[in-house]
Amino acid sequence: MKVLACAADASDRKLAAYLRKALPEGTVLETVSAASFSRTFRAKAAGAFVYFLATGLGQRKVLALASKLAGACECSWGVLDPAGESEDPAAYFFAGARDYVGPRLFKSGADPRRTAAALAYAARCGDGGPTDCEAAF
Question: Which of 31, 65, 81, 95 is most buried when burial is the number of CB atoms within 10 A of its CB?
């Protein structure tokens, strides 16, 4: 499995440290800046799970970037929100997100089993949008 992480700053050390601990063994991780995401997502996100870091981007920007994925590539996405900056985390799920990691979960430490479960859920749901998961169960 490939994970693409999109952040305001692609060299964000907290993001990298969290994901190194949270991702199941054998997962390929690539980090890109939000500025380069719009130019490169078709090639880089294909077949990947994309995590957007809400810190520094804000909810509106995350939703705008995630909307580019709809129909453009076969991938799912989620949000890492370590500071709890998102006003309405449910809005991500309404827009098709398959995972959300809020401040409590982020601070409690990364668990590769939890991330593996989220990635498996995303794989069952596909990339067909918010209602596609209904057919997965």
Answer: 81
Q: 78-96: per-residue pLDDT in tens?
A: 999 999 999 999 999 999 9
Residue 88 has what DSSP assignment?
A: -
**CA 38 to the chain's CA centroid:** 15
Q: What is the DSSP letter of 35?
A: H
The reported pTM is: 0.89
d(CA 8, CA 75): 20
Secondary structure (3-state) at 9: coil
Q: Which residues contact 66 (CB under 8 A, 6 or more apart)?
A: 50, 52, 77, 92, 95, 96, 97
* 8 Å CB contact between 1 and 99: no
